[in-house]
């Protein structure tokens, strides 16, 4: 059985390896070029690992959108990794352009600005490192993991170049079904919905249902509905250990045009 993720040396690969410690079954990692490709590959018996949120730059909006688009793929688990970016290449003084994934470029925005480099975005940090390695071009630098520098035999020119300490990214395990070896205590639920009416207090009614049940929300976020400017859908994550999930979802139905359960899943350390 296969678990799909981003290329060798990406932070997503590191997260996938960590998930494998918790999963029951014999899975092999296979690599995709982009988050979109991971969603396309995940089928009946396979799984995927993709990033969903970063502590500096916020949501990975592509993952949010694809969770809605691929309706039969659910979130099956979550874990967070410390992310420490490195400047990778040949000679720091010769660099003119830095290449990386947009999330990584954004997490090092101040560092890049300070050096006055141009930036170029690609599908993953490991692809950036590969481009620098294959080109042999000393004017290029990549931002990526220590593992990717080792894999492509390039030098680490600077370490911990993220703009803020405690940089963390949350990764999700996606698919249809998985069995874990040991299930942790902590469970979360992710939902997405559209409010029925655009009127004062519309979102308040939703939040009230959670407040009255003493349920802790861990994230609330709006994304464009993509139908009209100024219309939104909402993503909410909440803790769910003992409370009756069906009853909670039922209580929200009357305020929404649709509500989709993206997953009820364990949170791993
Ligand atoms: O390109 C990678 O290494 C990834 O795993 C993607 C990704 C992301 O999209 O957030 C993962 C973690 C970091 O936040 C930067 C990039």
UniProtKB/TrEMBL annotation:
InterPro entries xrefs: ACT-like_dom_sf, ACT_dom, Preph_deHydtase, Preph_deHydtase_CS
This protein's pathway: Amino-acid biosynthesis; L-phenylalanine biosynthesis; phenylpyruvate from prephenate: step 1/1
Cellular-component GO terms for this entry: cytoplasm
Top-rank taxon, per record: Archaea
Span of domain ACT: 191-266
Gene Ontology process terms (BP): L-phenylalanine biosynthetic process
Domain Prephenate dehydratase: 1-176
Recorded catalytic activity of this chain's protein: prephenate + H(+) = 3-phenylpyruvate + CO2 + H2O
EC class (word): lyase
UniProt EC number: 4.2.1.51
Keywords: Amino-acid biosynthesis, Aromatic amino acid biosynthesis, Lyase, Phenylalanine biosynthesis
Keyword Iron: no
SUPFAM superfamilies attached to this UniProt entry: ACT-like, Periplasmic binding protein-like II
MF GO annotations: prephenate dehydratase activity
Entry protein name: prephenate dehydratase
Organism annotation: Methanocaldococcus fervens (strain DSM 4213 / JCM 15782 / AG86) (Methanococcus fervens)
